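Appendix B.2, paired examples.
Example (i):
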Amino acid sequence: MAGRCAPHPFVNGRDPLPLLREVTLAARCCSNSWTPDTNMTERFDCHYCKESLFGKKYILREDSPYCVKCYENLYSNTCEECKKPIGADCKDLSYKDRHWHETCFHCFQCKNSLVDKPFAAKEEHLLCTDCYSNEYSSKCNECKKTIMPGTRKMEYKGNSWHETCFICYRCQQPIGTKSFIPKDNQNFCVPCYEKQFAMQCVQCKKAITSGGVTYREQPWHKECFVCTGCKKQLSGQRFTSRDEFAYCLSCFCNLYAKKCAGCTNPISGLGGTKYISFEERQWHNDCFNLFQFKHLSEVMSK
């Protein structure tokens, strides 16, 4: 039977490698301390602790100033790796609502930095592509090499292939997601399979890819094996032949069968039907018995 090889169930056929992004803060840290105008009398205090920000660094959040200590206590995220707050002067790297210091964002296995690099997640752990491939990636059934994350792979009956390795055995062209037919542990695209293995219908000369019937040791499509007279399909129906041409019973009887001298209906002679020839006339067995009975009655009545 033909199969269809589906891509591995990742988005767009690719492993879902997350993209590194940096937290965007709705605040800006002023590198210089705030110095009031000598003519100003208005205070400039931390929005939370109310301490003066005179001569200190501060951070604006939603247009409200905070001292660095209050801002970090209120709004800083905790690093997944070291469990320490990610300060206002540090980069906050995030993935799926989890946060890291830039120096803490590394591969769980080899400890190499993942900053600005592709990575994969497995059981809550982040892995570089090399470590992920060595531990979890499939091996190509054809070239035996690792199928790297982020590359398209094809799967069929528990085996995996690189997209470029999943090819037709005959024409050597990639099969992709097109229909194919496996035979003797090899995969064939449908056109190549038909050319190499499929029987040819004796009527239309085209390949028989499924079903079909055999008559006189020759293959036919079901739709090609029809009555010579009425052209109705004969597959699954009783039929007979004359001069090597197939006929349904109705057409054969109408065209070739002798008529019963008793009932005038055709005598098919098929399926073991008995008939009698008498005085150059043919009779159904039952019709002839009835004829004899009538004839005998007439003789006895005289």
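Example (ii):
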Amino acid sequence: MDFNMKKLASDAGIFFTRAVQFTEEKFGQAEKTELDAHFENLLARADSTKNWTEKILRQTEVLLQPNPSARVEEFLYEKLDRKVPSRVTNGELLAQYMADAASELGPTTPYGKTLIKVAEAEKQLGAAERDFIHTASISFLTPLRNFLEGDWKTISKERRLLQNRRLDLDACKARLKKAKAAEAKATCEGDTVPDFQETRPRNYILSASASALWNDEVDKGKGTGGSQAEQELRVAQTEFDRQAEVTRLLLEGISSTHVNHLRCLHEFVKSQTTYYAQCYRHMLDLQKQLGSSQGAIFPGTFVGTTEPASPPLSSTSPTTAAATMPVVPSVASLAPPGEASLCLEEVAPPASGTRKARVLYDYEAADSSELALLADELITVYSLPGMDPDWLIGERGNKKGKVPVTYLELLS
């Protein structure tokens, strides 16, 4: 193998010079070129962006995949540039267990029928979770990884080059200062040739190649004096300025990175909102199915939940609000004994005690006893004795019907 010994010795000498300069700066024995305040702010901003991006990326991975073993497996597949195998979600696995249990315990029994219904809902929840994980990984995690593995590595590389250029510049400044001091000393003593050996850093043991390179530099210095050091300083200053400009442009590009991450964050929130909305619809449908079947399974019992769910976007608890709603006499108690249904047309709202409510989401009436709702509209609501606490009577103009409290924000 052909080695260029001169280049090897030159590289070793440069490394040694940088090491000496860095050590003397740490001990306060050498001057250090300081960057301007704007540049320092750009560096601090870039470091902060990198640190927080790593934290957000790691925690989002935990959110999407809580199992650490699965995360390690996905990481290995990614590093090996292989496709990650499809994994069953917890909801889908639970749905499979419930379906198998219903098949073994009897799909025609009340318990088996309910297991099948819940299993179907859990399967839908698992599919929604799978779509959310896939969308969030593409629209949010991938851009963050690309920044850390691409742009940030480039910035780090240019920053290291800038650090080396600064060390070279400060070393040249120190050499020029020593050369001028040696020339001034020689002039005062009447010597014609300054002793450039005094410019060698003391208390260091040089290798053979570094000693040879140092002696070459000393020989050059004997012939040219301070002019050679000044020329090296100009070259080092030019290289430092050029590298500083390149690094500055990359650091200013962090603003574009923030804009890109902002767009990705909006996409993440959108996908998460879609996921939770799907889960809410699936569970609401399941609750309706279980509520309609409960009356047939247990005749004469009151259908409803003891702890109704609170509205996802309302700061006021609908359960508490429904409990404090004014109660009017139920017409069911006035109806003939054979009439089991509630005649909403005959229900008159109380003269005082009704409340206004703002509709949070669109709602389609399941039957004629319910009132269809449009988001952001205002309706009048009140409660009747014996009603499911998840429902209220709503009125809009001459229309009247039952409305779910989870779709309402009760106004004071």
